[in-house]
Specification:
The protein is mainly α. The protein is built from eight helices and no strands. The protein has helices spanning about 5-15, 20-40, 45-60, 70-90, 110-125, 130-140, 145-155, 160-175. Helix 3 crosses helix 4. The protein is globular, with a radius of gyration of 18 Å. The protein starts with a helix and ends in a 7-residue tail after the last helix.
Length: about 180
């Protein structure tokens, strides 16, 4: 579906069109859920937050000003709700499930063990990053947002997004560079 289609759905949702809302939810609900789940690392909480995000879409569709893509607006709502939930739980953001698909061409138990070890190492490295750094990586590499869109989602300047991405990648390289490979 195109951005224009999303905007039409939001206009209809602003007019309290339930069919449009259901269509919007079907189009964006799974991606919002995945993003929120990756941030809060709790399936139950992710379901609740996804519902909260979509309720906010229902309530606020009339206020969508079109200054960003509809998807960016929705992910901004999702980001804020997830961060608020994490603050309440005093938890940290979780690793990105989609960052490590390496070694998929390897086969056998040795390859599976290497992939599992890589995953654990990446999880530990990502766990050491700040919530802000991990959110930028998630939005960039998993959700495919531009730096400008990420700035809108996390409510900070583009320069801050660039800085966070730079330092997050630098810290990941440092942490992942310490992996010893059998060999």
């Amino acid at each position: 579906m195109s951005e224009a289609d999303d905007r039409v759905l939001l206009e209809r949702i602003a007019g309290r069109d339930r069919v449009a809302f259901e269509s919007f939810f079907r189009l964006h609900g799974a991606a919002v859920h995945r993003f929120v789940r990756d941030l809060v690392r709790d399936d139950g909480l992710a379901e609740e937050l996804t519902s909260d995000v979509m309720v906010e879409v229902w309530r606020s569709a009339a206020r969508f000003g079109g200054r960003s893509r509809a998807r960016t607006w929705v992910f901004g709502i999702a980001h804020h709700k997830a961060v608020d939930a994490l603050r309440k739980r005093r938890a940290t953001l979780v690793p990105l499930d989609a960052l490590l698909d390496a070694a998929t061409d390897l086969e056998g138990p040795e390859a599976a063990a290497l992939r599992a070890d890589d995953r654990r190492h990446l999880d530990a490295a990502l766990g050491a990053l700040s919530a802000e750094h991990r959110a930028v990586l998630e939005l960039t590499y998993v959700e495919g947002f531009s730096q400008k869109e990420i700035a809108e989602i996390v409510d900070c300047p583009v320069a801050t997004v660039k800085t966070r991405a730079f330092y997050a990648k630098q810290r990941l390289r440092e942490a992942l560079g310490t992996v010893e490979r059998p060999g």
